[in-house]
Amino acid sequence: MSESISFLPPRRKGLILHIAAAILLAAASGLSFFFALEQEVGGVFGLLLLLGTLLVAPLILAGYRGYALLGGGYALERDGLRLRWGLRAEDIPLPDVEWVRRAADLAYHLPLPPLSVPGAVLGTIHSPELGPVEFLASDINSLVLVATPQKVYAISPADPEEFLRAFQSGLEMGSLAPFAPFSARPAAYLAGAWKDRWMRWLVLGGLGLTAALFIVVALLIPTSPPLPLGFLPSGAPQEAGPAVRLLLLPVLSALAFVVDLVAGLFFYRRPARRLVAYLVWAAGVLAPILLLVAVGFILGAA
After folding, report:
1. Residue 129 pairs with which residues in a beta bridge?
2. Which residues are within 8 A (CB) of 255 and not within 5 positions of it... i.e. 6 or more apart?
3. Measured CA angle at 178 (ends 176, 181), to 5 deg
4. What is the pLDDT of residues 32-75, one digit of tens each?
């Protein structure tokens, strides 16, 4: 084995599932906010607002898992194995590999991580026979286990037999210069990003201004008359509605803050794109400022 051989996980079912889930969740969240605008003040209005907000978390999860699957893979080199899955990365020197075999060849049942679905069989479980097993896989039918002294990794190359043959060939040739072990986890990445002064101030600024928008709106609602929340094509204000609908503005600000935070973290991974990350986080600061200005315009039009 003279060079790296890449093995991709099965992707088709997982991508279809996660793209469909993301579209459905985005549509459900958007429709919840849309119908909230059409409701009178009351329980239904509050429930729709809450539902639209809560659906953002699984939407982000589905988007991240789809992205991780699209970029996930396993690179087999003469000196070791490199695993990549989203923000998770693991480099295993060849001498650290104790054995490699298909999960289907085990004489006992290997439990799966919670919430495993096609395209995202992820997480760590404890097996009585194997100890800790970390899954970086997309398909339970093509699982291959790679054992090291610390833990067992469960991966899913699309062609498990070819992966095993290539790995056996690498073992027979031996390693000339095993690379250093390396491990990167999402939590460690977030902790490293948080040490960046610009990132910290921009994120805290966006969070603080969004909280301020919530406070301002909460103070205005009890004393405000019915207010218009939009404009007609002619430029005239729409028909006035209950002032409590102003809560939609801080909710939209919070959603924009979350989206900007996640998008900024995506760009921050590469040093060449960190300026883009700072600009995206700056947008999270600008959004609540603009919405505070919008509150002033709405009150002026009342």
Report:
1. none
2. 53, 56
3. 175
4. 887 876 666 666 777 888 888 889 889 989 999 999 999 999 99
pLDDT given at position 212: 92
- According to DSSP, the β-strands at 131-137 and 152-155 are parallel
Q: How far apart are CA 51 and CA 24, in angstroms?
A: 14
Contacts of 9 (CB under 8 A, 6+ apart): 69, 72, 73, 74, 137, 138, 139, 142, 155, 156, 157, 158
**Residues making up the chain, counted from first to last:** 302
151 CB-near residues (< 8 Å, 6+ apart): 124, 131, 132, 133, 134
Domain boundaries, the chain: 1-184, 185-302
Strands (E), 42-151: 73-77, 80-85, 88-93, 99-102, 121-127, 131-137, 144-147
Contact (Cβ atoms closer than 8 angstroms) between residue 147 and residue 99: yes
Quick check: 228 pLDDT over 80?
Answer: no
| pLDDT tens digits for range 198-217 | 999 999 999 999 999 988 88
Closest CA to 89 of 100, 99, 81, 97: 81
- Output DSSP code: residue 110: -
- Eight-class DSSP state of 90: E
Which segment, 49-58, 147-156, 241-250, 252-261, is predicted with the most confidence on average? 147-156
pTM (2 decimals)?
A: 0.78
Residue whose pair of structure tokens reads 């992820």 in the numeric block: 122
Within 13 Å and on the Cβ side, how many CA atoms surround 256?
Answer: 22
Question: Rounded to whole angstroms, how far apart are CA atoms 54 and 46?
Answer: 12
CA-atom Rg of the chain in angstroms: 25
User: What is the C-alpha to C-alpha distance for residues 179 and 160, in angstroms, rounded to an integer?
Assistant: 24
DSSP 8-state symbol, 176: S
